[in-house]
Design brief:
Length: 103
Amino acid sequence: MRVIVVEGLMPRFYFHLTSMDRHILDDHGKELATLNDAYNHAGRLIDQILFYVGSDDAKAWKVVVSSDNHKTEIIVPFPVTYVPARAKGQSTRDDSGTVKVLL
């Protein structure tokens, strides 16, 4: 007799990066408890990508979050303007001496 427990399994979400002419597929995915968690993870991916490569071409890209059965669950566009999460709360001083704090 073989028993398979399905209740404890979390759904696996895949985070594909797409633009008009390029597609970077996620073959591994990530197990997350909810679709909201997948949305938050997509936001963190976008933040990490933009932090390292910049935002020059950002508006052309989006993260397509799909489920195990390849159904698109959410599409998260890259932001048009970008302030890296790591920079939030840090202060800078412009040429006039004014201190600015990124919120």
